[in-house]
Amino acid sequence: MDESVEIGQRELELFRDLLIRFQVFVREHVIESRERESAERLGEIAAVTEADTIYRIDRLTEKGVLDWFLAEWPRDWPAELVMEGIEDSDTIIVPTKATPRLKVIIDPIDGTRELIHDKRSAWVLTGVAPYRGDLTGIGDLLLAVMTEIPTARQWRSDQVSGIRGAGPRGVRARAYDLIRGGDHAIELRPSTARGFDHGFASFARFFPEGKGLLASMEEAFWQAVGQSTGEIPTVFDDQYISTGGQIYELLAGRDRMVVDFRPLALKKQGLAKGLVCHPYDICTALLLEEVGGVVMEPDGGSLKSVLNTTAPVSWMGFASRDLADLALPVIRHLIPRFFGPGPPPD
Is there a contact between 154 and 256 (Cβ–Cβ < 8 Å)? Predict the structure, then answer.
């Protein structure tokens, strides 16, 4: 199927409002679950899918997600749901048995592990694309919404939504006061720095698998761009175990670069399975692009993955085109050296 559905601005604004309500629902559902049950209980393994490990807190949330869509999603815009925790072979359409006009990709809790241990915020992530069957890809997403699920000690939850092609004016950001109630607009602006000095720029290497290879590439990168020659470090690293959280840090001007080449590293080491970025993790990338940031594949092209739950996604995100232009030639030079044929370099 290569025909796509036309979605107008009015419909996109309708979907934006619906998904904002949906994500507030998920946030409150997770917070209530956390208040009822211990971290140990919520962290129990509920299932292991082809894509990820599913914890009890994930499973509790998934049921609420499906119930919400069945009750609230407009019946004249049937949607196929692609969601973490649902196998690619399990097709879920709301309303049931309708012919889908949309594909909605969802990560109900991106950053489950850090949230369970109350270390750092997780995020609800959602993207909407016109339905093109199995060909529907990340580049087809026209709307993205993300909402923060904060730690127990936080009073504020941020939310960002945006429409492809609308530019910065189409990106809306709000902060919710979870204690006193209410919300207000906030401004998110990526860093305007022309280089990486005295800023945060990271290569994702969360887990033991592939970490040595990724760290070696990272060191070679900083040497090549002249940031690893002094005794005092001038570039700082942040391992945020949430792709949505990494996109937010770039949006908010806190990070200047994020590189996630975990799939390349695992493939190089002959590891067929591993915890990597999937399309539902990176479905809000268009928010960064609409405010002037850059998100790309390792070759410098736009993200091409289809919208499913299992495709591994290697990606790079930059606060600006200037930073992308600074890094990309070095990255292109290093990829064959570290991930090409032959043994990894010493």
Answer: no
Which residue intervals of the chain bear CATH 3.30.540.10? 9-185
Record the pTM: 0.93
Tell me: pLDDT of 1 over 60.
Answer: no
What are the backbone angles phi and psi of residue 191, rounded to the nearest 5°?
Answer: -60, 140
Dihedral of the alpha carbons of 265, 268, 270, 276, in degrees to the nearest 10: 20
C-alpha 325/C-alpha 167 separation (Å) is 21
Strands (E), the chain: 45-48, 53-55, 79-83, 92-94, 102-110, 122-130, 143-149, 156-163, 172-177, 183-185, 199-203, 235-236, 255-260, 294-296, 315-318
The 3-state DSSP class for residue 18 equals: helix
In the chain, where does the domain assigned CATH 3.40.190.80 lie? 199-339
Distance CA 318, CA 251 (A): 9
**3-class DSSP state for residue 282?**
coil
- The helix (run of H) or strand (run of E) holding residue 250 is helix 243-251
Residue 320 φ then ψ, to 5°: -155, 165
Instruction: Give the DSSP H or E segment for 64.
Output: helix 56-72
Q: Which of 329, 325, 203 has its CA nearest to residue 264?
A: 203
- Name 112's Cβ contacts closer than 8 Å, sequence gap at least 6: 55, 57, 58, 122
The CATH number corresponding to 9-185 among 3.90.1070.10, 3.30.540.10, 3.30.360.10, 3.30.2390.10 equals: 3.30.540.10
What percentage of the chain carries pLDDT values higher than 70? Answer: 94
**What CATH number belongs to 199-339?**
3.40.190.80
* Average pLDDT of the residues of the chain: 91
The 10s digit of each residue's pLDDT in 186-217 is: 999 999 999 999 999 999 999 989 999 999 99
Q: What is the pLDDT of residues 103-144, one digit of tens each?
A: 999 999 999 889 989 999 999 999 999 999 999 999 999 999
Is the Cα dihedral 318, 324, 327, 329 positive or negative?
positive
